[in-house]
Amino acid sequence: MTDYRTLISEAMKARENAYAPYSGFYVGAALLAAFEKDGKPLIFTGCNVENAAFTPTNCAERTAFFKGISEGVRAFRAIAIVGGKQGAVTDYTAPCGVCRQVMMEFCNPDTFEVIAAVSEDDYKVFKLKELMPEGFGPDNL
Ligand code: THU
């Protein structure tokens, strides 16, 4: 599997594109597909995109998911997330509840990994199930 460092580095790069003039909180994400493409890891990146009306704001994680799904990919292995005020990242950023629910739709809660990172060397790894205990997903319907 693509190593955590690569995913974190991709998330850091995506964070540079974050559009967050209202919160001043800049987030980047890198989502690893379950399958390679042309022998290479398939990674979808995303950043948060805010809006003057506030509610249309999209989180970095959902941007990455929706990019992947709109490209025809439906199976994912892991997502790295980095976030913080302008400048270097100083703390771990966990996904919001809405993003966790989107993960529940497309990921196996027992195996999908959420990597909350401060740097390539400083990160925490959670299984989706830990972040969404007793969650509701397609299998519950
Ligand atoms: N945000 C994300 O993009 N991902 C997270 O995991 C936490 C929150 C964004 C939404 C909003 O633009 C800003 O961070 C502050 O909540």
From TrEMBL:
<feature type="domain" description="CMP/dCMP-type deaminase">
    <location>
        <begin position="2"/>
        <end position="139"/>
    </location>
</feature>
<feature type="active site" description="Proton donor">
    <location>
        <position position="61"/>
    </location>
</feature>
<keyword id="KW-0378">Hydrolase</keyword>
<comment type="similarity">
    <text>Belongs to the cytidine and deoxycytidylate deaminase family.</text>
</comment>
<feature type="binding site">
    <location>
        <position position="96"/>
    </location>
    <ligand>
        <name>Zn(2+)</name>
    </ligand>
</feature>
<dbReference type="GO" id="GO:0072527">
    <property type="term" value="P:pyrimidine-containing compound metabolic process"/>
</dbReference>
<keyword id="KW-0862">Zinc</keyword>
<dbReference type="GO" id="GO:0005829">
    <property type="term" value="C:cytosol"/>
</dbReference>
<dbReference type="InterPro" id="IPR050202">
    <property type="entry name" value="Cyt/Deoxycyt_deaminase"/>
</dbReference>
<dbReference type="InterPro" id="IPR002125">
    <property type="entry name" value="CMP_dCMP_dom"/>
</dbReference>
<dbReference type="GO" id="GO:0055086">
    <property type="term" value="P:nucleobase-containing small molecule metabolic process"/>
</dbReference>
<feature type="binding site">
    <location>
        <position position="59"/>
    </location>
    <ligand>
        <name>Zn(2+)</name>
    </ligand>
</feature>
<dbReference type="InterPro" id="IPR006262">
    <property type="entry name" value="Cyt_deam_tetra"/>
</dbReference>
<feature type="binding site">
    <location>
        <position position="99"/>
    </location>
    <ligand>
        <name>Zn(2+)</name>
    </ligand>
</feature>
<dbReference type="Pfam" id="PF00383">
    <property type="entry name" value="dCMP_cyt_deam_1"/>
</dbReference>
<dbReference type="GO" id="GO:0004126">
    <property type="term" value="F:cytidine deaminase activity"/>
</dbReference>
<comment type="function">
    <text>This enzyme scavenges exogenous and endogenous cytidine and 2'-deoxycytidine for UMP synthesis.</text>
</comment>
<dbReference type="InterPro" id="IPR016193">
    <property type="entry name" value="Cytidine_deaminase-like"/>
</dbReference>
<keyword id="KW-0479">Metal-binding</keyword>
<dbReference type="GO" id="GO:0008270">
    <property type="term" value="F:zinc ion binding"/>
</dbReference>
<protein>
    <recommendedName>
        <fullName>Cytidine deaminase</fullName>
        <ecNumber>3.5.4.5</ecNumber>
    </recommendedName>
</protein>
